[in-house]
Design goal:
binds zinc ion; alpha/beta; single chain; three-stranded parallel sheet; TIM Barrel; 13 helices
């Protein structure tokens, strides 16, 4: 397969990415990525100094807001330094202007709701500093909602009262609600009360790959009825449904085809979830979370390779308009609906 790593004419937006350092975002820009939701931290202290501390903080929400502020202060320095090329998106006009003027749209988000505090007291402060996205859960249940861990168990209590309040607040503030990693009941509860489209930022088809993070057909249809987005994960085990094999681009395209045939192309986006390559984070992350064997799809290991997905999509018979929607125009529509 001949791979095309040159910049394309498509707008490319990423709905789930953890790469937060200067070199990462400069690489995004150089590769033709137009913007992304930056999941600045997670609901687990993945780079905690020891596995013991990681485990101890796993089911607590203590310290997550403070760590977020620390990372945010670092990011703000970068935004100040690169203000001519990177825009922190506060509303849809920022997004549309950045797109028009070829600037990088950075949407500030988080993989998990522990940062807002158990009474939502921190939401206002974080919103003022630019937070526009929250993924309710990471791997574990929190005070907002049950996670995928609870699927099929009595502990799947869905969305809590605080969670409901958060959905209401996020709807009225024009923030992006992300249900990736949430339990089936939590997702159902959110869809019932949200007044705006929602996103599942890094997932795939459960029929093709039986991992709890992926969605059943009925869930994909529910999300399509909401005008929401399903952004596709590039991590091998989520793409393939097995742990020790590396996926290839055609394996991702199988998810694109399956989901398009089930619910239409308008639901699809990209959510690669890149996290490796940050030296200060990698070492502890891999040990703390037991992920030594984790791989990303071959030829899509970081944003410098994002254009490699285009030729194989064309060869698989996707029309230019479909590729345009998958890569960025569905995301654009979504931002304009939500913000
Ligand atoms: Zn995740």
């Amino acid at each position: 397969m001949k791979l095309n790593s040159k910049k394309s004419n498509f707008n490319i937006f990423l709905a789930h990415d953890h790469m937060r350092n200067k070199d990462d975002i400069l690489r995004d820009i150089k590769s033709g990525v137009s913007g992304k939701i930056l999941h600045l931290e997670l609901d687990g202290w993945i780079d905690a100094p020891s596995k013991e501390i990681y485990k101890k903080t796993y089911n607590s929400s203590h310290g997550f807001y403070e760590r977020y502020l620390k990372s945010l202060s670092k990011l703000e320095l970068l935004l100040k330094e690169k203000k001519d090329s990177i825009v922190l998106i506060r509303g849809k006009s920022d997004f549309n202007n950045a797109k028009k003027n070829n600037k990088f749209s950075l949407i500030l988000g988080n993989e998990g709701g522990k940062i807002v505090g158990e009474n939502l007291e921190n939401l206002e402060i974080l919103y003022k500093r630019g937070l526009r996205h929250i993924q309710l859960n990471w791997a574990m249940k929190n005070f907002l909602s049950a996670s995928q861990e609870e699927e099929g168990k009595y502990s799947d209590t869905g969305l809590s009262k605080i969670g409901e309040k958060l959905i209401f607040e996020m709807n009225s503030k024009g923030m992006i609600i992300d249900v990736s990693h949430s339990s089936p009941i939590s997702i159902k509860n959110v869809l019932k009360i949200t007044k705006k489209p929602i996103i599942n930022s890094h997932s795939g088809s459960r029929v093709l790959s039986n991992k709890p993070q992926n969605l059943y057909d009925s869930q994909i249809k529910d999300l399509a009825d909401n005008n929401g987005l399903l952004a596709l994960h590039f991590c091998s085990r989520l793409v393939l449904g097995v742990n020790d094999k590396q996926s290839n681009i055609p394996d991702i395209i199988k998810h694109v085809e399956y989901i398009r045939n089930l619910a239409g192309i308008d639901i699809l986006a990209l959510g690669p979830d890149w996290i490796l390559g940050d030296e200060s984070r990698d070492k502890n992350y891999l040990i703390n979370t037991n992920q030594q064997n984790i791989t990303w799809t071959k030829d899509l290991e970081d944003s410098s390779k994002i254009n490699n997905i285009i030729d194989p999509l064309e060869k698989a018979g996707f029309k230019s308009i479909e590729i345009e929607k998958l890569l960025g125009e569905n995301f654009t529509r979504f931002i304009n609906d939500v913000m």
